[in-house]
Amino acid sequence: ETGVTQTPRHLVMGMTNKKSLKCEQHLGHNAMYWYKQSAKKPLELMFVYSLEERVENNSVPSRFSPECPNSSHLFLHLHTLQPEDSALYLCASSSWTAPNYGYTFGSGTRLTVV
Amino acid sequence: AQKVTQAQTEISVVEKEDVTLDCVYETRDTTYYLFWYKQPPSGELVFLIRRNSFDEQNEISGRYSWNFQKSTSSFNFTITASQVVDSAVYFCALSVRETTDSWGKLQFGAGTQVVVTP
Q1: Residue in B46, B101, B109 nearest the CB of A97
Q2: What are the residues facing B10 on neighbouring strands?
Q3: Could you give phi then psi for residue A84, rounded to 5 degrees?
Q4: Tens of pLDDT along A19-40?
Q5: Coil, strand or helix at A27
Q6: CA A42, A48, A51 angle in degrees (round to 5)?
Q7: Do B95 and A106 touch (CB under 8 A)?
Q8: Is the dihedral of CA A100, B8, B110, A6 positive or negative?
Q9: Torsion from C-alpha of B84, B85, B87, B91, nearest 10 degrees
Q10: For residue range B39-87, what is the model confidence (pLDDT) as tens digits?
């Protein structure tokens, strides 16, 4: 498989549930990103991983916990979410030394918190 | 600091009309890249074009064209003879050279929703 793959595509979870979003890339990239896209809001960068180390965390609540076990996989672990966390969560990857070549995005996971 | 402004929130056109999306950027760096991405209803952001700050040549790809003007810090995108399949959100983005060996993350604009009706 090529490109960036995100699973699941849709997720409905209760506020007390624990779930994980998965992102996988086979592009040889060494940087991965989580973005949140809420209705009628700009893309919000949540986390950045370079060479499997977190290099940025943009004041994201602790109920979101990222994990990057290797350069090809990125997870976003979710627990005790709020309804306002409902959004499209996008994963992207790039070359860390050359993001100027652009990011490759996955199709996103559409999350609904009930 | 860098900033990308897409002042148009939504543009509605009838099929076959041309539509131009504005993008204005701010940066003090002289070396940077500009991008356009398309986000159809399926959600994935699709890369359309990358342009570096030293290349002001306009580009045409099929029905798409881009007008880069450093003098006005603009990188506008035109869809000629629009089609219903062009309905999407379009994002402009900027990446600046932070050091000799590193580039900053992509800075996205707020996006412009294009609605093309038959």
Answers
A1: B101
A2: B113
A3: -70, -5
A4: 999 999 999 998 899 999 998 7
A5: coil
A6: 155
A7: no
A8: negative
A9: -150
A10: 998 888 999 999 989 988 888 889 999 999 999 999 999 999 999 999 9
